[in-house]
Design a protein that fits this description.
By secondary structure, the protein is mainly beta. It is 9% helix and 43% strand. It has a 20-stranded antiparallel beta sheet that branches. Strands 5, 6, 7, 8 and 9 form a five-stranded antiparallel beta sheet that branches. Strands 1-2-3-4 form a four-stranded antiparallel beta sheet.
């Protein structure tokens, strides 16, 4: 079967791309594969109907400490633009992460440091190689570096993070696979073993079965990765770096599919931690660009991760040798009852109608070290798109001596401190509201000045401002003005003469605490604005740049937008920053109940009336 041009790479395609690089890429035996993922065809190619299947490939060659990238044309294996990318570091891939854990634990210098802390059970130690960031240390620039954090697992063997070995940080040259030095800021007593994570004793016995049945099957239709549901048309995709990607999102109305977005993804994230002491200032995880969320995607289990009538999409990832790896059930899709959609009753006439809301959920979960992130897209019958992050797993545990307190964290368990941090997500939306050419508007509300018309101060006026270029379109939330942003189609009008539009309706959010000119502030410059809009450019995919690993902050949104390109009647890309500020509680330990952070895209004059008037009422 010929794949749709936006389908993820197949097993055969990954294998073919790897072979092409191995035979023509000019790399030596030490080289490994960071990324083999779909190189998406352009909108123009898609519109023309003549697309080539291409793989984007990135390799790292340890012997020369060089990173290469380019594409492979899959029809004939031709390499296009394959070259060394100077001055960058590839992501730290899962195999490299695992290799560091292995070799550091065998290193006599590290074993001695453990023994000095009374730890002899080396097999039960976990060494995690975190991206080292860029802190202006000259000798680090030329080295492929990891800054490690260490834990001793519990006796039950089901929690490798149970007993933090605080203040012990092997600094590793990943290319040479050797320890450069061990940063030791002094031993902190090991916390007691918290016991098993997977408890079997004392479980609740009053949770009765809850079954979701759809006797006539689901209301969606699936053809490969193409989905139709309740007027929605969506192409489900996957990327090795971003994980779940949605393409060609449109809503069918009066017999025609009206486009809304060409592409939606969570394009980058950073988690700056707020403890500056010892080696902890190094903890600033850019989980997408430094590690790759797609490579960390979970295989989901029915009845556990997902409940109801589920359609799963499988995807192929790969290991660092380039061998394809099937991830069964990587993306989950199902319908959910979501309470009431709308209700109206008229007592005098004795009429009433209640319409229940149904939503389509498309999601994936990614396990990255101690944390698990879920990315959820919700499609509603009224044209609303919900975007939600779920976070669970273990909030980064560190050790604290009994009786000590900390200004940077809270005590969440016996001898366990967890620090203030923020999970900052950058969602990228390649917009296509009723077509490719869009424009950006900001809406604010203000009290009207007192006047003869407004003697009691009741007046609230609407201020709509065109954000006509990229410098103007770098905005933060303003609760006092109930601010939001709209993407309009300047050519298309609704029945009331207004441009058809979708609005970005923010939810809870926060701002970064660290200064913009700090090392992590520079690398994560996207954090400082909730809303950015850019003119589409094919190579502007990730808001902290293509290679954030060890980067000083030389690439990304803040750099690109210096060009101040026009956004008026252009191909507009919106970047929304969702910042979840987090001080862990004792209730978040030993494992954190899911926390949610979300926002919505809502039609705003896209339709002439509530598009869900035709949803049949609930059966009472
Ligand atoms: Co957190």
């Amino acid at each position: 079967m010929t794949p749709h041009p936006l389908d993820p790479l197949t097993q055969e395609e990954i294998t073919a791309a790897v072979l092409a690089i191995k035979s023509q890429g000019g790399l030596d035996e030490s080289a490994w594969f960071e990324t083999v993922s779909l190189e998406e065809p352009s909108k123009q190619e898609l519109a023309s109907g003549t697309t080539e299947r291409r793989a984007y490939v990135c390799c790292y060659e340890p012997s020369s400490n060089r990173t290469f990238n380019g594409t492979v044309r899959l029809s004939d294996g031709a390499l296009e633009g394959w070259s060394h990318v100077p001055g960058v570091q590839a992501r730290i891939v899962p195999d490299e992460f695992a290799a560091v854990d292995e070799f550091v634990r065998r290193d006599p210098q590290f074993v001695a440091a453990l023994e000095a802390r009374g730890i002899t059970d080396v097999d039960n130690v976990l060494v995690e190689s975190w991206g080292a960031g860029h802190f202006g240390v000259a000798e680090e620039d030329s080295v492929r570096l990891a800054y490690c954090h260490c834990w001793l697992g519990n006796e039950a063997g089901d929690n490798p993070y149970a007993r933090p070995i605080a203040n012990l940080h092997p600094v590793v040259d990943l290319a040479k696979r050797e320890i450069i030095r061990i940063d030791d800021f002094g031993a902190v007593p090991l916390p007691p073993d918290p016991g098993p994570m997977n408890r079997t004793e004392g479980l609740r016995e009053d949770v009765k079965p809850l079954e979701i049945t759809q006797p006539e099957g689901p209301s969606f239709e699936v053809d490969g990765y193409q989905v139709r549901w309740q007027n929605w048309h969506i192409h489900v995709g996957y990327d090795l770096r971003e994980s779940l990607v949605l393409h060609q999102i449109g809503y069918e109305h009066d017999g025609k599919v009206r486009p809304i977005m060409h592409r939606a993804s969570m394009a980058e994230m950073v988690v700056p931690y707020g403890d500056p002491r010892g080696g902890n200032y190094r903890r600033n995880a850019f989980d997408t660009g430094e590690y790759g969320l797609g490579q960390a995607v979970d295989s989901l289990a029915l009845g556990c991760d997902c409940l109801g009538h589920i359609h799963y999409f499988d995807v192929f990832t790969h290991d660092w040798t380039g061998t394809p790896k099937l991830i069964k059930n990587a993306v989950c899709m199902h319908e959910e009852d979501y309470g009431i959609l709308w209700k109206f009753q008229y007592a005098r006439a004795g009429t009433s109608r209640v319409v229940r809301s149904r939503r389509l959920v498309i999601s994936s979960l990614c396990t990255i070290g101690n944390y698990i992130y879920g990315f959820y897209y919700y499609f509603y019958q009224d044209g609303t798109i919900g975007v939600e992050v779920k976070a669970t797993g273990i909030p980064f545990p560190s050790a604290i001596a009994p009786g000590d307190t900390s200004p940077y964290g809270s005590i969440v368990g016996e001898g366990i401190e967890s620090h203030v941090h923020q999970h900052v997500f950058s969602f990228r939306f390649d917009m296509a509201v009723d077509g490719v050419k869009n424009a950006v508007r900001e809406v604010n509300f203000e009290a009207a000045p007192a006047s003869d018309e407004n003697p009691y101060g009741a007046g609230i006026t609407i201020k709509e401002t065109a954000l006509k270029n990229e410098q103007a379109a770098q905005r933060c939330l303003d609760m006092g003005r109930a601010r939001y942003w709209k993407i309009i189609n300047p050519q298309m009008h609704n029945a009331y003469g207004k441009n058809t539009a979708y609005k970005l309706s923010p939810g809870a959010n926060s701002l970064p605490m660290l200064p913009p000119d700090s090392p992590t502030g520079r690398r994560g410059a996207f954090m400082y604005r909730h809303f950015w809009a850019t003119q589409y450019a094919a190579d502007e995919k990730y808001p902290a740049g293509m290679y954030p690993n060890q980067d000083a902050g030389t690439d990304g949104l803040a750099e690109w937008t210096k060009a101040d390109r026009s956004l008026e009647g252009e191909d507009v890309v919106v970047w929304y920053t969702l910042n979840f500020h987090h001080l862990p509680r004792p209730e978040d330990y030993p494992v954190q109940p899911v926390v949610y952070a979300d926002f919505h895209w809502m039609p705003d004059g896209f339709f002439d009336e509530n598009p869900a008037m035709d949803v049949p009422p609930g059966k009472g």
